[in-house]
Specification:
With 819 residues, the protein is of the alpha+beta class. Among the domains are: 128 residues, Agglutinin, subunit A (Orthogonal Prism); 91 residues, Phosphorylase Kinase, domain 1; 194 residues, Transferase(Phosphotransferase) domain 1 (Transferase(Phosphotransferase), domain 1). It is built from 14 helices and 48 strands. Strands 26, 27, 30, 31, 32, 33, 34, 35, 36 and 37 form a ten-stranded mixed sheet that branches. Strands 3, 4, 5, 6 and 7 form a five-stranded antiparallel sheet that branches. Strand 8 and strand 9 form a beta hairpin.
């Protein structure tokens, strides 16, 4: 009995000691009966049981208030069962670990040497520090569903950290739910509320003072914000000016963001802000070029400018189905001097996912930069607090735009690209809904006169050539060196082709792209072979120059892995190309479709990769002129009846002669996701630009996934980043498309993935030439180890011109010339 009394006394002493822990070291530990309290006792680290759940968790919660609300959970994926005897302690390796008996349930997962200590700070941050008080690990780097003052959302590129909130699955299950709230850094940074990949709400572009379109932040003067956008970090944090206030921002399982403040009178938590607030906060409710406005009596959506935009599907629009969005009345032509800008005010700026920005540019420089690129649709200054500097360019349609109350000071200005015919004499007027507009014409009078003079001269010259031309009406095409030469391929009559296609009947259509439509024709040639007719539409991104370029390039090229051109037709505004007919359509029809992908086993995929590589070797070094394709992608690889690949679509190709190895252009054209960084950002292209595109295509063929977009939502990786992650972890086989998983040979898979990563290296000089690629694919060449590739993450692109606190370089590659 005496021994038992002594033992009970010792346990009591230990409990009393443990309950007053202000830190955990190698001589202390925390059990489910203990509490680790911050210095001012605002927060406590405890074992808790949510609601009626039978599971237990280690978490941080408020200590001084009656509602001890949980703000962070350690083992949210690995619950402890009731009746277990957990212990939190510092291991011999200096790691903070949660143990259930002898099993490690959760740890800080750090590598260190020497003594460490765990401490709960007054701001609710659990930290592991060394003897010099250096923070080795902190809970603020691993948010759960709650954002506390001083906690960050964003990315730390130097430490490969991403900070975002994730909801609990339910009020009794803190495991990560489907909902997340955090930064989208693919373009200019902004926070988005997502359910998986589905966006529910976004707060608008980040600014030093407020968020575009979230007026409540501007009106709430108790908040201060800290926004960092530079090379090493993109982050947002908030604080209260009054440190005595208790506040938190939570993401609940009902897809709502709620900002809470504790009332001193003890009545509990009160919601100070909540998002989404109304119908117009729903993401992209009005789609392309639509504006959501609560000022409308009968509808929530209007077109950006009802004088210049119309609903794409008017009948659906009348029924309040705005999913089709709006389209331009007059399409853009992308000709010098033919376009300008109109200013729209009081708007929440559009989604910034497909944007580029440079915060050192003036608005005038921004306008000129936008005009250089045919797919730049708008520009704006995202942060008016920078005294006139800041440039944000939008590529693709403008999405998720909201009209804000006039005079509220909450909206922003945006300058939208328009055809010259839409730039009338009005300098200021209001469209329905109250958005102010102003016309900006980016050419001087002298420039207009110069363009008119040049156009007159060209027309006169063209007329003289037409008078000297033999009858027949078809043009003589000029090659890339400017010399005129007659085509060796036959010129077809438009009327014959129209008859053969039943006047371009939909029944004969094979497909359609940005250039126009492709039709199948039988029996027009003497041998009765099937042919394909490519008819360029009036609004095609391919103009006369691209048409000529394609004809001349293919005339000079003959290779089994290049599509064969049989002839062409030019009559008035009609431009037609006649190709050999390839029955299996294009490569993207197979690799990106779950049903069709099973038709491509591993052997066929590898042969397709090798065929494309051999075609590029011919273009780059074996043809009469060195040809750079500039648009290698899955949809431009056609397949014959034996599934052999043929490279097509040479409208953007450029030829080099002599010792030329690279060139520069002010007009960046191509397809988002396939362009090399030096071309996308600086307009510099070479044969290594095609090598990069080929590398992307190789990874797509192997995986069956597109490079464009997020493949790994947790890490926000695109395909290249996802492959690089698996490559570093030796998990090659996880990349294989299910359609060819059973037929593949691991050694060939590893070699092919290695080749793909070598081809997408950030520096062009690190990429192999295509002849070396062919040797490696055949198992003969030396297989080098790739470095970290370009575009490792969606936001981690080559960046230029950084200042100490402002991100000024290109962040997101523009999608140019959609085809």
């Amino acid at each position: 009995m005496e021994g038992e009394a002594i033992l009970l006394f010792l346990l009591f002493v230990f409990k009393s000691y443990a309950a007053e822990l202000d830190s955990i070291s190698d001589s202390k530990f925390l059990t489910d009966a203990d509490t680790l309290v911050s210095a001012t006792a605002i927060f406590e680290l405890v074992f808790f049981q949510p609601g009626s759940s039978e599971n237990r968790y280690l978490g941080i919660r408020y200590n001084k208030i009656s509602e001890r609300t949980v703000v962070w959970v350690a083992n949210r994926d690995y619950p402890l069962l009731v009746g277990s005897r957990p212990m939190l302690k510092i291991t011999d390796q200096g790691v903070l670990g949660l143990f259930d008996n002898s099993s490690l349930i959760w740890s800080s997962n750090i590598t260190t040497s020497g003594n460490t200590t765990a401490r709960l700070l007054d701001n609710g941050n659990l930290v592991v520090i060394d003897q010099q008080e250096k923070v080795l690990w902190q809970s603020f780097d691993y948010p759960t569903d709650t954002l506390l003052p001083g906690m960050k959302l964003g990315r730390d590129y130097t430490r490969s950290k991403k900070w975002y909130l994730s909801s609990w699955k339910s009020s009794q299950d803190p495991a990560p739910g489907e909902l997340t709230w955090g930064p989208d850094t693919l373009g200019y940074p902004e926070n988005k509320l997502k359910q998986g990949a589905l966006v529910h709400f976004r707060d608008g572009p980040w600014r030093n003072r407020v968020f575009s379109g979230v007026s409540a932040y501007r009106k709430n003067l108790t908040f201060t914000h800290n926004v960092i956008i530079n090379k090493s970090e993109v982050s947002f944090a908030y604080n209260f000016k009054d440190n005595s206030l208790l506040s938190r921002l939570t993401l609940n399982s009902s897809a709502r963001l709620e900002s809470w403040v504790w009332l001193e009178n003890g009545t509990g938590w009160r919601i100070s802000l909540s998002f989404p607030r109304d119908t117009c906060d729903r993401y992209n409710i009005c789609n392309a070029y639509g504006i959501c406005s609560l000022n409308q009596i009968q509808q929530s959506c209007i077109c950006l400018d009802e004088k210049r935009f119309v609903p794409k599907k008017q009948m659906d629009w009348n029924r309040a189905d705005w999913s089709g969005g709006c389209i331009r009345r007059t399409p853009l032509q992308c000709k010098s001097g033919s376009e300008g800008f109109i200013k729209y005010s009081n708007l929440k700026l559009p989604d910034t996912e497909n944007t580029w920005f440079n915060m050192s540019m003036t608005l005038e420089e921004c306008q000129r930069e936008c005009l250089k690129n045919c797919t730049c649709m708008a520009y704006a200054n995202p942060d008016s607090s920078l005294h006139g500097r800041g440039c944000l360019l939008w590529f693709n349609d403008l999405l998720d735009v909201r009209l804000l109350p006039e005079g509220s000071g909450d909206g922003e200005d945006i300058f939208v690209r328009m055809a010259s015919s839409e730039l009338d004499s009005e300098s200021n007027f209001k469209i329905q809904g109250g958005a102010n507009t102003k016309i900006i014409i980016p050419v001087t009078v002298a420039g207009v006169l110069l363009i008119g003079f040049i156009s007159t001269c060209l027309c006169y010259s063209q007329r003289k050539r037409n008078q000297a031309r033999p009858t027949g009406g078809d043009e003589i095409l000029n090659d890339s060196k400017g010399q005129e030469e007659h085509m060796e391929q036959p010129l077809f009559s438009f009327s014959i082709i129209a008859n053969a296609t039943a006047n371009f009947s939909h029944d004969n259509k094979l497909g359609e792209g940005g250039f126009g439509s492709v039709y199948k024709v039988i029996g027009m040639l003497e041998d009765g072979k099937e042919i394909a007719v490519k008819r360029l539409s009036m609004n095609s991104s391919q103009g006369v120059d691209e048409f000529k370029n394609e004809v001349i390039c293919i005339l000079k090229l003959q290779h089994r892995n290049l599509v064969k051109l049989l002839g062409c037709c030019i009559q008035r505004d009609e431009k037609l190309l006649i190709y050999e007919y390839l029955p299996n359509k294009s490569l993207d029809y197979f690799i990106f479709d779950k049903t069709q992908s099973v038709l491509l086993d591993w052997t066929k995929r590898l042969n397709i990769i090798k065929g494309i590589a051999r075609g590029l070797v011919y273009l780059h070094q074996d043809s009469r002129l060195r040809i750079i394709h500039r648009d290698i992608k899955a949809s431009n690889i056609l397949l014959d009846q034996d599934m052999k690949p043929k490279i097509s679509d040479f409208g953007l190709a450029r030829s080099f002669g002599g010792n030329e190895t690279q060139a520069n252009t002010q007009r960046v054209v191509g397809t988002y996701g396939y362009m090399s960084p030096e071309y996308a950002l600086d307009g510099l292209f070479s044969v290594k630009s095609d090598v990069f595109s080929f590398g992307v295509l190789v990874l797509e063929i192997v995986s069956g996934k597109r490079n464009r977009g997020i493949i790994d939502p947790e890490n926000e990786y695109n395909l290249i980043g996802h492959v690089w992650s698996l490559y570093n972890e030796g998990r090659f086989m996880e990349l294989i498309d299910n359609g060819c998983a059973e037929s593949c040979h691991p050694s060939e898979v590893i070699r092919t993935i290695n080749v793909g990563l070598l081809c997408v290296q950030q520096n062009a000089g690190d990429r192999p030439n295509m002849s070396s690629v062919v040797l490696v694919l055949d198992g003969e060449g030396e297989l080098l180890q790739p470095k970290k590739p370009s575009f490792f993450m969606g936001s981690e692109l080559p960046i230029r011109n950084f200042s100490s606190n402002v991100f000024t370089g290109g962040c997101t590659i523009t999608m140019v010339e959609p085809r």
